[in-house]
Amino acid sequence: MTRTYDPGTIEPRWQAAWEREGLFQAADEGDPRPRFYNLQMFPYPSGDLHMGHAEAFAISEAIGHYQRLQGKNVLNPIGWDAFGLPAENAAIKRGVHPKEWTYANIDHQRSTFRRYGCAFDWRRQFNTCDPEYYRWTQWLFLQLFHKGLAIRKAAAVNWCPKDQTVLANEQVIGGRCERCDTPVVRRDLTQWFFKITDYADRLLADMEQLTEWPERVLTQQRNWIGRSEGAEVDFEVAESGDRVTVFTTRPDTLWGVTFFVFAPEHPLVGKLAAAGGSSDAVRDLQDRMQRAQAGPKDQAESKEGVALGVHAVNPVNGEKVPCFVAPYVLMEYGTGAVMGVPGHDQRDFDFAREHGLEVRIVISPGGVELDPDAMTEAWPHQGVMVNSGPFDGTPSPDSIGRVTSWLEAEGKGRAAVSYRLRDWLISRQRYWGAPIPIVHCPSCGEVAVPEDELPVLLPDDVDLSLHGESPLVRHQGFVRTACPSCGGEARRETDTMDTFVDSSWYFLRFSDVTPDAAFSREGVDRWLPVDQYTGGVEHAILHLLYSRFVTKVLFDLGHVGFTEPFTRLLNQGMVINEGAALSKSRGNVVEPLPMIERFGADTIRVTMLFAGPVEDDVDWATVSPEGVHRWLRKLWRLANGAAGSAPRPRGDGALRRLTHRTIRAVTQDFERFKFNVAVSKLMTLTTEAGRALETGRGDGPDAREAVVADVREALEAVVRTVSPLAPHIAEELWRETFGHAESVFRAGWPAFDPDLAHEEKVTLVVQVDGRVRDRLEVPASADEDACRALALGSPKVAPFLVNVVTTA
Ligand code: ANZ
Ligand code: ZN
């Protein structure tokens, strides 16, 4: 009796069985199989899972199951990145506590994951907002603090007046807060930083290990770190005698300096403005900048500037050039001051033209003469030094090194390297985050909370309704404490940590979720580095950079034995709808749970994977769960038709050859994550198996049995190779329909018979006027002429051929 395919019944049944059998639990000890750590970036619990999760986890599940079938002991964990501002804002809006909101969403997502049949080792789950977790985030902070890598310093920050918090540069879009669209202002605040800049060189150098990362991500990391080689050159302010140093990548243009520029926040500006009589104008500019709704990019392109009224002395020729303050010079880069070389630097050129400053040529292209008055842009390329005193005639790029050595010999400068990378600002003036475990004592200063007193618990009873500073500031029970060092009255730090700190080490803890430590050395030695990390390309820079940094710090402290945490990285595409991102305001949101309920988890998984290459976006409007569902139903029907006892397949019939060729081909597809291609091959094999079952009657009962045996072999191959993509139906057909005692996930990846897989013959489908008239087995090596001759010679084809026009 053929049962009908009902995913709503079989899927929950297998989910319960797998859980009961502990089938997907990773084995820590006593397991001889090679280990494979398969990780998907953990979700943020804002509401239920969305379609992007359905896609991302379909991919990582496919990878994990495939490795399991390849005989690996797979660690496939799940957790939640559960601190963060959206919880707090949603909580304020709805009047529920962030904790309640967050844990309710986690419950929701967890049950959707279960309904999706994810093969997680549920014993290892955690949330970053659990005290059992953030205790160790605080521990991590202390490791950096004791090493001098967590420091407090004043910084000009982007401040959102509405969210009352600091924003990273990437969170400022066109001068506005990414989340609430409020114009962002600059503010000077004392903040906690992790000194990631100390690791800039290693973050670059170790990229050599990342041979299995997408090139695009490596490029973004490299640009973010932004290493520049050049020189520092010391100038002196003529009127005050102050020494000011610049960073330049072109010391060979020093003779072309015609002005000097300070960043508005440069510490000398106030003093020099007073000396030069420009205080009002300078303060005006600084005020304008405070209010400016300008992002970092607008600032770099600004031609605005104010003359300071003082001069800088060029150390190479003693020339005095006017000093300016201008926003295009950034305090955060180099030394916060630049020498203006308008002939050869475009930003300097634009500024010089705006302010009527001299343009002087000191690098000659050779051949053409540059005319400073006629130039419409700088000439930033290499050439030969001219108008440069003793260096005239020196060709670049040698000139850079030669001038640098000379500066060093003269005591006027030195070789230097500059990085775009800034220290990692981890302070947040918000509630829903891990408290920074520091106490401020009037006599002892910043004192670390002793490790055995962790966690510093986040109090539940806070008033979130008041806008202003962090709710923790007003919580006396939290703020007032005793100094761990002298016992005197002291004040707790009220900043919480950026959620990127939470996610910078979570992958370590999955290896051993122990109450006694952040992770154990045995755990990380056993499981890490992560073999396969899958996630969205939006995390190409910060999350990965921070995780790499923290790993290196922990390596230096002897807590882990590797310097790069993720061996192989895959960025999946996004799920969009009709070409646009899914969003409530657009009204094009598709939610996974109703889809899973309607079609089944297997259909939705395969739909996601069949939609295209994993790196590409999936446009929901163009995919067809119905089509995939029809295929699975057919597979179900055929498998039930071919079940029952059958002799072993023999011989080398067409179906057998196709079966073994398909196994060989999809193995390669799985290795390369080409799941869409694999699915289409499995669909073809299913169709051919169906055809054989319907038409391959054979002569006599024996022959019929042989056909059924071949069909069953084909369908078992489909079931086993589709199991990473559609685990439930595969398990049902494997265990129940085909009657195997053990799970399909214990059956291993099927092997192919190389003789059968050998592509000696292929099926030539002969069509006449768009209709199939015959199928011919032809040698795979047959060329077009040979195929044409065979087709024309077929007795099934001949009747349909009236006027054959042979196109040569
Ligand atoms: C003079 C000069 C002449 C420069 C020339 C370039 C070409 P990258 O390559 O990105 O590292 N610069 C230095 N500090 C700056 C700051 N805080 N804000 C804005 N610009 C700054 O850029 C290095 C160059 O950027 C430096 O070399 C300096 O301009 C400018 F023909 O010095 B150069
Ligand atoms: Zn003290």
Oligomer: single chain
Overall 3D form:
globular
- Residues in β-strands, percent: 15-25%
Helix amount, in percent? Answer: 25-40%
Structural class: alpha+beta
Number of helices: 26
Q: For the residues shown, what is the average pLDDT?
A: 91
Largest sheet: 7 strands, mixed
Poorly predicted regions are none
Number of strands: 30
Q: Tell me the radius of gyration.
A: 34 Å
Q: What distance lies between the first and last C-alpha atoms, to the nearest angstrom?
A: 54 Å
Which ligands does the model contain, each kind named once?
ligand ANZ, zinc ion
Can you offer a commentary on this structure?
- Helices cover 37% and strands 18% of the residues.
- It is an alpha+beta fold.
- Strands 8, 9, 10, 11, 12, 13 and 16 form a seven-stranded mixed sheet that branches.
- Bound molecules: ligand ANZ and zinc ion.
Q: What does this entry show, briefly?
A:
The protein is α+β, with helices and mostly antiparallel strands and 808 residues long. The strands form 9 sheets. Strands 8, 9, 10, 11, 12, 13 and 16 form a 7-stranded mixed β-sheet that branches.
Secondary structure blueprint with pairings:
Layout: H1 7-21, E1 35-40, H2 51-69, E2 73-75, H3 85-94, H4 98-115, H5 131-146, E3 150-160, E4 165-167, E5 172-173, E6 176-177, E7 185-194, H6 200-205, H7 215-225, E8 227-237, E9 243-248, E10 259-262, H8 269-276, H9 279-291, H10 296-301, E11 306-313, E12 320-325, E13 337-340, H11 346-355, E14 363-364, E15 384-385, H12 398-410, E16 413-419, E17 424-425, E18 427-428, E19 438-441, E20 445-448, H13 476-479, E21 480-482, E22 489-492, E23 496-497, H14 499-502, H15 506-509, H16 521-527, E24 530-536, H17 542-556, E25 566-572, E26 575-577, E27 580-581, H18 592-599, H19 601-610, E28 618-619, H20 625-642, H21 654-671, H22 675-695, H23 700-722, H24 727-737, H25 754-757, E29 761-768, E30 771-779, H26 784-792
Parallel strand pairs: 1-2, 1-24, 10-12, 24-25, 26-28
Antiparallel strand pairs: 3-4, 3-7, 5-6, 7-17, 8-9, 8-11, 8-16, 10-13, 11-12, 14-15, 18-23, 19-20, 19-22, 21-22, 26-27, 29-30
Helix pairs in contact: 1-24, 2-19, 3-4, 18-19, 19-20, 20-22, 20-23, 21-22, 21-23, 22-23, 23-24
This protein binds ligand ANZ and zinc ion (ZN).
